[in-house]
Every structure is written in structure tokens, then in C-alpha cells.
Amino acid sequence: MRGSRSSSKGTNLKVGSHGCPSFFKIYLGESSFSCERTLVPRAFVEAHEEKLFQSSWALKTEDGGLRRVKIERHGTDSFFCQRDWEGFARDRNLRFGDIIVFFLVGISEFEVMIFSQTTSCRIVSPPANKTAKADHDAFTSSSSDDDDDDEKIIKAPREGRRSKRKSSCNYAHASGSGSSKRSKLASGKGIQVKTESTESEMEEGFQMKRFSNVNLTAKFPYFEIVVKKSHKESIFVPMGFARETGIIHEKVIKMMSSENRSREKVEIHRVNNNRVLLVKGWGAFRSANNIQVGDKCSFTLLNPNSHGTMRLLVKKLPKC
DNA sequence: TGATTCTAGGGTAGCCGTAG
DNA sequence: CTACGGCTACCCTAGAATCA
């Protein structure tokens, strides 16, 4: 599914730390609505025309992989050939929001660095014959506490003493770091701790995770939740997300689906001064998109800094 | 450094008001 | 009376702070 349709937006010119000219693109995957091709920044092409072939470029990744991509020219614009770009995305296991940095290191030769949007860390792709399990692990790496330096969870730094607790952005889930310690502690206090999913939940094919997964560092901030029974007519927005993105001050948000292009205006209710609920419109949107209990969904804010109505892209994720 | 305590915030059951 | 939606109180989690 991933990489079945690809495009990207948000390019900027940069200069690599090692002096090579560079640019980056953000992978929007199949969730992009438009059928636009994948544009190479015109300014970059113009600035380095003498080092760039007209027909194809070589992309080298950090794991030693090499892929040639055809370049299509239309007027003054250059595009990655859609099929090659999709192939590259598939090979590299790109995810929505991943950042791809291209360093021009030779004649039509680029070194490519990929940063995971989820972990804000560099991704070095596993060998090409990786298993589906490995795919899944990579996909869910943001919620595991493995020792891979490239996929470490970035923890928020400790702030001043007794500082107010921030939201659990980019933190590990309950099954992650510190759970064993907490289990001991909790059992000592007679509190039942649920650090692992129950059998019934496993049978249903998903793990009930109490907390949502929030990423505010991405260009397009997002949060992910597993839809529960109680989300039939309303759904909570994590407070950290609501505050940082300004949703907390909004009355209405436009919700759009990555799958069938349906759109719905959803009312935002402020509860108790410390809760933010998506209410009217959510139910209809959920039905229209066949979002059911147990489905894992990501909610990506497409226009975090605009003054108009905020737009939230909803995407069903594979169940874990 | 590990154990313990504190506490902000997420999740949800259930109450209450309103409409049909 | 019933269904529905809004709201609140409470429980629980887990990061941060503190202490031995």
C-alpha cells in the first residue's frame, strides 16, 4: 500500500554540512490528494545545471544502495519519474512525513539521507530481503525501546524542577522504557498496571494503548490513536497537540480522508478548560470512512501555521 | 543510581438534560 | 419512556522530582 502513489511537497534549498549542495523533500505518500509529479526544486537545478544530466540521476543511500531515477523535463521544471520515485520510496520503506535530503556529491550523483518523521532520526534501510516482521518493527519502532541507535526514541529533556508535565510527545508507549520499574512500584501500591495487551486484544489484532502517539516536531504535526468504542461520536485531541497547534482555540476543523477524499467539518468542544473534543461531524466522518473500533488512525494537521480553517488529514494505519 | 513520591494529563463510565 | 449528546468525576499512567 505504501508507496503506491507518491508525491512530495515542502522543498527548501540547503547546504550540506560537508559542503555539498543539497535540497530536501518531504514524502507524503499516498495521502497526497493531488496527482502532482515529484518536482525537483527549480532553483537547485538552475544553480547546478552543469553537474546534472538531463535524463537520469543516481541516488546513493547510506546502506550502500544505489538507484537510478529518470528525470522528466517539462519546460524549466524537472521531475523525478513517478515510477522510479515510487520504487525508491518502496525500497527505502518511506513513511508519510519522512524527510529525504539529497546531497549532490558528483556528476548527477546524490547521496540520500532519510529522516523518519516519527522519530526525527536518520533511517538506514535494512537489507532488501527484509521480512514483513522487520517491516512491521520498523514501522512501529517509535513505540519500542530497542537498542538501535538509528531508531532511538527522542525523549523530552528534563526541565526545571517541578516543571509542569508536558504531553507525551514522541515518548515511548507503556510497553517501552521504564515499564518494569513502574510495574514493581505499582504492584507495591496495589495498583493494577496494564503494560501489555490482553489476550482478547491480541486476538482482535491490535494492542490497546492508553495513550495516543503525538509528533509535534514534524513539519506537519500529527497524532495517532486506536479508535475505541467511546470514540463513536466524539474523540479527544491530545492536549499537547491541541495547544501546540492552536486547535485548542479553534471552533471548527475541516477533516479530510486520505482514502476517499471525503471531507467533513467537525466541531471542536473545549471541556473543563483542559480537554479538547472533536464532536459534531466526527461521527459522520467516521461512518463515511468506515473507521471502526480497533482501527489505528493518524491525524495530521496540514496547515499548522495558516490563519484559515485548520485541516486535519485522517489516515487509517495498518493495525499492529 | 535506584527507589519512591508527586502530579499533570489521558481515558472512560456514568450522570444529567433535552428532544422526540 | 427512550435515545442521544454533553459533561464531569474519577481512575490510572507515566514523566519529573526527590531522596537515600
Using brief descriptors, characterize the structure shown.
At1g16640 B3 domain, 17 strands, 9-stranded mixed sheet, 320 residues, alpha+beta, elongated
Description:
The protein is α+β, with helices and mostly antiparallel strands. Among the domains are: 22-123, DNA-binding pseudobarrel domain (At1g16640 B3 domain), CATH 2.40.330; 213-316, At1g16640 B3 domain. It contains seven helices and 17 strands. It has helices at residues 42-47, 82-91, 132-139, 179-188, 199-203, 239-245, 282-288, and strands at residues 8-15, 21-27, 38-40, 56-61, 66-74, 77-80, 99-106, 109-115, 122-123, 213-215, 222-226, 235-237, 252-257, 263-271, 275-278, 296-301, 310-317. Strands 1, 2, 3, 4, 5, 6, 7, 8 and 9 form a nine-stranded mixed beta sheet that branches. The protein has an eight-stranded mixed beta sheet with strand order 10-11-16-17-13-14-15-12. The longest helix has 10 residues, at 82-91. The model is unreliable at 1-17, 30-36 and 125-211 (pLDDT under 50). The structure holds a DNA duplex (20 and 20 nucleotides).
